[in-house]
């Protein structure tokens, strides 16, 4: 069973994929979000802070656990690497010290992939944390780009475009100063191309953060009414 509390979509005119988000998608979690970028869809749910097993109990902070599941098959090395990037990102923004001797669990399920699994999963996680009301230093937004053999940078490419590219990179930015929280790269990028990709993704992240803001405004306006 599921319930829909807020659903919205957005498409930026400057060659970015369509973003859509549905909050409170799952009934039995503290917060959840179904997030899509183009044809890539990820579902994230958050539970906690809550009870924690003794061996994960920390006296000065909450234990954070991130579990990622692919759409088909079992988790392999690539999925564990993706899981690690998400964990590293979330650890930097959640105020874990506010809830010692507890656990916060983030579960991410890949629903459909068209090359943007990492950015969709990270953005779904951010929206699920907001939906759950977990205290954070700031929001965060992920943007993926690829570099073609002709030297063109494509923001939020399709899987077919990624296969034809020489490198693909995903950057995660905080919602305050757009500083880089984490980055993941496949392929080779020289310093010039890396900085160019970073700048374009940073610009795109502003629009993703504005999309977040609209989603949350819709959520709370519907709650009040």
For the structure shown, list the relevant keywords.
225 residues; alpha+beta; disordered N terminus; globular
Biggest sheet: strands side by side, in what order? 1-2-3-4-6-5
Helix amount: 25-40%
The number of helical segments is: 4
Q: Which band does the percent of strand residues land in?
A: 25-35%
For the termini, the CA-CA separation is: 24 Å
Q: What coarse outline follows from CA principal-axis ratios?
A: globular
Number of DSSP strand runs:
10
Mean pLDDT: 90
Could you describe the largest sheet, including whether it forms a barrel?
Answer: 6 strands, mixed
Radius of gyration: 17 Å
Tell me the series of helices and strands, N- to C-terminal: EEEEEHEHEEHEEH
Poorly predicted regions are 1-14
Topology (SSEs and partners):
Blueprint: E1 6-10, E2 19-23, E3 31-37, E4 40-50, E5 63-69, H1 77-93, E6 103-112, H2 117-132, E7 140-147, E8 153-155, H3 159-163, E9 167-174, E10 180-187, H4 191-224
Parallel strand pairs: 5-6
Antiparallel strand pairs: 1-2, 2-3, 3-4, 4-6, 7-8, 7-9, 9-10
Structure explained in plain terms:
This protein is globular. α1 runs parallel beside α2 (117-132). The chain is 32% helix and 32% strand. The chain is of the alpha+beta class and 225 residues long.
Brief write-up:
This protein has 225 residues and is α+β, with helices and mostly antiparallel strands.
